[in-house]
Specification:
The chain has 291 residues and is of the alpha/beta class. The chain has nine helices and ten strands. The strands form three sheets. Strands 5-4-3-6-7-10 form a six-stranded mixed sheet, with helices on both faces. Helix 1 packs across helix 5 and helix 4 runs antiparallel to helix 5.
Length: 291
């Protein structure tokens, strides 16, 4: 039995994200993603400005007048949300946890997909594959996806992105748009991502909290690694410690950006406590413009 507060939160996220999709992303999602190909629709008489490469020479020869072929894009896509639900996601210092930001973000992507008649699936992972929800259409299915993002209780604590990618490859038999949502606090898997990139449209989303980039000077703080349980007492009043902390965080993010740039993928970066609409809009706009 799903708790009433979870159902209430699902409904709240549905209302908020539906409004974002309708008001902000209308048309942008469609223009950002190509269909699987082009299918023949009809022939019609040639008009000035038509591409001569589309002339149907058989019909033209039979009628004595030039005719062109018209095609339409096969739009139905499969959108997969690969979501990191490791213990490091249960962290947040700006009025929300990273996991809650991921739920809102995932809901927005799911609603954008079904609004364009695409299918949506979900794969949640930690150091193992936690849950797989096959891709389907419809509002009821999207509500289930949101519910699982909010309600699922992970068994693992670590992060194994490669295991999630391997499982996805086994269960998907066609090309998909894959949103990989994680804080990427895991070993480097760029080689595996390069293989996935050849088969699917891979879009990584980096989820961070400001305190993972900068530490305030509040004297002694006990840091806990939620994935390993390791504890460390640090003096945050030390400028040298804070500078080293910020340098390591910056180095990690820079490394991730360079990795995905080499792979030819667009990295979307979102932060707890900040609207995710702007980076998502920028991504849709840039993709649509390149098309």
């Amino acid at each position: 039995m799903i708790p009433a507060e979870i159902l209430k939160e699902v409904r709240r996220i549905q209302i908020l994200t539906s409004a974002i999709v309708n008001d902000v992303f209308a048309g942008q999602y469609h223009s950002a993603f190509k269909g699987l190909g082009m299918e023949f629709q009809e022939v019609r008489e040639y008009q000035p400005g038509d591409d001569v490469r589309t002339i149907d020479w058989n019909v033209t020869a039979r009628t004595g007048r030039p005719f062109v072929k018209r095609f339409r894009e096969e739009r139905e896509l499969t959108v997969m949300l690969l979501v990191d639900v490791s213990a490091s996601q249960d962290f947040g210092t700006r009025r929300e946890l990273k996991s809650h930001l991921v739920a809102r973000l995932g809901a927005t992507l799911a609603f954008s997909a079904i609004k364009n008649n695409d299918k949506v699936g979900l794969l949640q992972f930690t150091d193992r594959v936690e849950q797989f929800v096959p891709a389907k259409k419809g509002i009821r299915h999207v509500l289930r996806v949101i519910r699982e993002l909010l309600y699922h209780q992970p068994r693992g604590r670590g992060t194994n992105i490669e295991a999630a990618l391997d499982h996805m490859d086994r269960v998907l038999n066609r090309r998909a748009v894959v949103f990989l949502i994680s804080d990427f606090q895991a070993p480097d898997v760029s080689a595996r991502l390069r293989v996935v990139r050849r088969r699917h449209d891979l879009i990584p989303i980096l989820v961070r909290d400001p305190r993972e980039r900068q530490m305030p000077p509040v004297r002694f703080v006990e840091l806990l690694d939620p994935e390993t349980g390791e504890q460390l007492l640090v003096d945050t009043h030390s400028r040298a410690f804070r500078r080293r902390f910020e340098e390591l965080a910056q180095r990690q993010e820079t490394g991730l950006r360079q990795t995905f740039r080499r792979l030819g993928t667009d990295l979307i970066e979102v932060t707890t406590g900040e609207p995710f609409v702007e980076p998502l809009t920028r991504f849709f706009h840039n993709r649509g413009r390149r098309r």
